[in-house]
What does this fold into?
Amino acid sequence: MVAVSGLSKRGRLAEIGFDFEQGSLALIGPNGAGKSTLLSILAGRIKADGGEAKLFGQPPRSLSAAKLRAYLPQQVAFPVHLRAWEILQAARHLKRLADSALAEAVARMHLEPVLDKPVGTLSGGMRQRLALAAGLMGGARLWLLDEPAAAIDPGGFGCLQAWLSDHRQNGGTVIISAHRPEEIAALANEALLLRAGRLIHRAKVDELYRYVLSDGRQLDEVLPGARLTREPVAALREALYEQGDR
It folds into this structure.
């Protein structure tokens, strides 16, 4: 469980409190709402000025907590001269993982075609896939992701969505910041709404949306209990997705 009580950071967070045990929790809010600050505190990168946070009973800055989490900041810069497989090998060695963990990460993010390419030649979307593969390799119990879909391509987003879904089904916990509605709906099942460093609302993601027909009626009035999903048509999928991602 992630337990936060009265967490404060001067000028950034004001007495944030919540408990979250399992699933995927989205942090939603405008720039400056405190999303990245909250994730950085939970990741042990910065220290709170007040309050308390515990990751499965451990303080965020402890070695025991570090072994339980994977953290991906909003921006990750790799040396441009290194090849993709060298980045992944470095991550594997740092985490002391078996070769099978690296192989799974490559397969999860469909990186096989770019493993021998220098990072500097990769597209922005492929660099983000590489960052996700390196960061999430090893299956840590808790994932802390700061806008992981901001720079990713549609195929990579599908890979991330599938990996995250499997992680949740296997009992994992995810806390993720996001902006776009489609990201929130696809990647999270609960949400915290933040503004100016304060928690203003908590809800199930499904409760944050409603579907309204052109005549003003809501979908539930016409089809009680119905839910809509949006899928790209074949031509759009062909244009947006890398071969093998569809």
